[in-house]
Write a structure and sequence with these properties.
Elements lengths: L1 H21 L3 H13 L12 E3 L3 E4 L7 H6 L13 E4 L1 E4 L4 E6 L5 E4 L2 E3 L6 E6 L2 E6 L2 E3 L5 E6 L2 E6 L2 E3 L3 E6 L2 E6 L2 E3 L6 E4 L5 E3 L2 E3 L6 E4 L5 E3 L2 E3 L5 E4 L5 E3 L2 E3 L6 E4 L5 E3 L2 E3 L4 E6 L5 E3 L2 E3 L3 E6 L6 E3 L9 E6 L5 E3 L9 E6 L5 E3 L11 E4 L5 E3 L2 E3 L6 E7 L2 E3 L2 E3 L6 E7 L2 E3 L2 E3 L6 E4 L6 E3 L11 E4 L6 E3 L11 E4 L5 E3 L9 E6 L5 E3 L8 E6 L5 E3 L2 E3 L3 E6 L5 E3 L2 E3 L6 E2 H29 L1
Length: 618
């Protein structure tokens, strides 16, 4: 009696799961029933002996009246149930209504179900149902038009191989519950009303080389299942290709997940899963979507032509996204929102509609060694995401900025290459207490590095910002207390370094040569220190416009149109700078004054000598 209750419980779990999905799909099912009433029985399999069963067949090894030997006596099977001579149910047709066609329960015998055809009607009906059973092979069968039931359903089973079956127009093609050590391989599952394959509390199972197409819900749905492998399946034209819910330690590898109506792969509340080497094209939402999922690895996938390529949302943390190709997606290549402490590394995120890589409200992430080229807006965009590291990325030929950082603090942006972007190489907006260093920012249409709107206390050092169409480094809109040191900003069409409405910055030991306008330019910027810089071959070495109380100390200004210049400015202090006009000698101000004194003394001495000589002659 207890065993019957357990069997009932397992089937109820499977059935409720099916009911939940079918309730959303009733119009489709209703259309299917109408079709079924009109169609005659189809038997596309080649049935050799073709026994026809129109009433349910049940084998229960704990009930002597319907055990394997009783089934053998009734002509349902052959064999003896050993591994060398398994019971074989073969070449039968099961066609009935409101029933489960074939049930096997409480069996430890070896058996094979082969080359049979199953059709039934009724809510929660099934072609094959296995309960508390091991050592079975289900091979080369067909279940079809079981619209509100299961093609194959198993519960509390192990060591079952489901191989090379055809499940067409079933509620769920293959469903498992509380089972382990299963092989689901080489099956063709088409036009499922709900899931193609459904794993519930199933572990250590391989789902491989199946074709799951044209379903109304998920191709593969795994719920509360762990340590499974989903490998080399073709899953096209479903809702989600693969969805894992509360499922951990699962490998999803080398699957083709294309043209699905929502996600290619959707992982919800999953841990330690590996998503490796999958092809995800033309899915309507995202190629890969993680929600509240931690410690997962996403590597070697091709996620192209989706809405987003890879998305981590809603507190998905400590994941690694590495070496994926994420190109030609409608909006974003890689998208993180509300997700912290992830690693995004060595990905190609090119030719996406808006952003190559986009982070929002996501802290402590490392974005390194990615290529983000030819995107419709920014190459890499971080917004309201503190404590992130951007290291050795390349952002080329993007329609907006190469790298854009908005409203964040404690960012490290280091050793990136940002060139030939339509706007700025690197753009900072309201960024505080960050390190921007050793970046190579060249040939951008606007500025190399643009820092604006309340970006304070940043350390800008050792960057190369050359050959940009505006300025090499441009700081504006009340960006204060920044340190600019040891940068090179040369050969830009306007200024090398340009401060606009920004105060209390220190500009020290930079090189700003051969710029079209000024080496260092200040506009409405006060109390800045310009120290030990080299600004040669510019229009002005330094130009101050409506800028007051600045210190210009110990700089080298050679071969500029003017050494330094100012207009509308007061109380600026020019001290110990070295100046040289074009093709002239290099002299600082004190040296010039000393020379004037010496020359003046020499002239006076010469005149005095001439007067003395004239007096003697007279």
């Amino acid at each position: 009696m207890k065993n019957q209750r357990n069997n009932l419980k397992l089937y109820i779990v499977l059935s409720l799961n099916l009911l939940l999905v079918i309730s959303f799909l009733f119009p489709i099912i209703n259309r299917g029933f109408n079709i079924e009433k009109e169609d005659s029985l189809e038997t596309p399999l080649t049935i050799k002996t073709a026994n026809l069963y129109t009433t349910p067949v049940e084998i229960d090894e704990r009930n002597n009246s319907i055990n394997w030997e009783a089934a053998k006596s009734a002509g349902i099977c052959t064999g003896s149930g050993t591994s060398g001579d398994p019971y074989i149910i073969k070449d039968h047709i099961f066609d009935m209504t409101l029933a489960i066609c074939l049930t096997i329960s409480n069996s430890r015998k070896h058996f094979i179900i082969e080359n049979c055809s199953f059709r039934t009607t009724g809510l929660f009906a099934a072609g094959i149902l296995l309960i508390n059973t091991t050592n079975g092979i289900i091979e080369d069968n067909r279940a079809y038009k079981i619209l509100s039931g299961f093609g194959i359903a198993i519960g509390n089973c192990s060591l079952i191989n489901i191989i090379d079956n055809n499940m067409t127009s079933c509620g769920i093609g293959i469903a498992t519950s509380e089972s382990d050590d299963l092989l689901i391989n080489l099956n063709h599952i088409e036009n499922s009303i709900s899931y193609g394959i459904n794993l519930i509390q199933t572990k250590e199972t391989e789902v491989s080389n199946n074709d799951i197409i044209n379903g109304e819900s998920e191709g593969i749905f795994s719920d509360d299942s762990s340590f499974n492998e989903i490998i080399s399946n073709t899953i096209n034209n479903n809702t989600d290709g693969i969805e894992l819910l509360n499922s951990n330690d699962t490998i999803i590898e080398n699957n083709d997940l294309s043209n699905n109506r929502a996600e290619g792969i959707y992982l919800d509340s999953g841990l330690r899963c590996e998503i490796i080497g999958n092809t995800l094209f033309n899915n309507s939402n995202r190629g890969i979507y993680l929600r509240t999922s931690n410690h997962n690895t996403i590597s070697g996938n091709d996620a192209n032509y989706n809405n987003d390529g890879i998305a981590l949302l809603s507190s998905s943390e400590d994941n690694t996204i590495i070496s994926n190709a994420i190109n030609y997606n409608d909006i974003r290549g890689i998208y993180l929102s509300g997700s912290d402490n992830n690693i995004v590394m060595k990905n190609d995120a090119n030719n996406n509609g808006d952003y190559g890589i986009f982070l929002s409200l996501s802290e402590g992430n490392t974005i390194s060694q990615n290529i983000a080229n030819n995107n419709g807006d920014e190459g890499i965009y971080l917004s309201i995401s503190n404590d992130c590291i951007l290291y050795k990325n390349t952002a080329y030929n993007n329609s907006g900025n190469g790298i854009r950082l908005n409203s964040a603090s404690n960012i490290t942006c280091s050793e990136n290459i940002a060139h030939q972007n339509s706007e700025n190489g690197i753009r900072l907006y309201s960024i505080d207490d960050s390190l921007i260093q050793k970046n190579n920012i060249h040939h951008n249409n606007w500025n190399g590095l643009r820092i604006r709107t309340g970006s304070d206390r940043n350390n800008i050092q050792n960057n190369i910002a050359n050959y940009n169409n505006l300025s090499g480094i441009y700081i504006l809109s009340t960006s204060n207390d920044n340190l600019l040191s040891e940068n090179t900003a040369s050969y830009n069409l306007e200024h090398g370094i340009y401060l606009d409405s920004s105060d209390d910055n220190v500009i020290i030991s930079n090189i700003a040569n051969n710029n079209g306008l000024n080496g260092i330019n200040l506009l409405q910027s006060d109390d800045n220190s310009i120290i030990s810089n080299t600004a040669n071959n510019n229009n002005n070495g330094t130009f101050l416009d409506a800028s007051n109380n600045n210190l210009i100390f110990n700089n080298i200004f050679l071969n500029n149109g003017d050494c330094y210049n100012e207009t509308g400015s007061t109380n600026n202090n020019f001290v110990d700078n070295i100046c040289q006009a074009p093709s002239g000698f290099s002299l600082n101000l004190n040296t010039i004054l000393l020379i004037l004194v010496i020359v003046e003394g020499a002239i006076i001495a010469t005149i005095a000598g001439a007067l003395i000589i004239r007096k003697r002659r007279s």
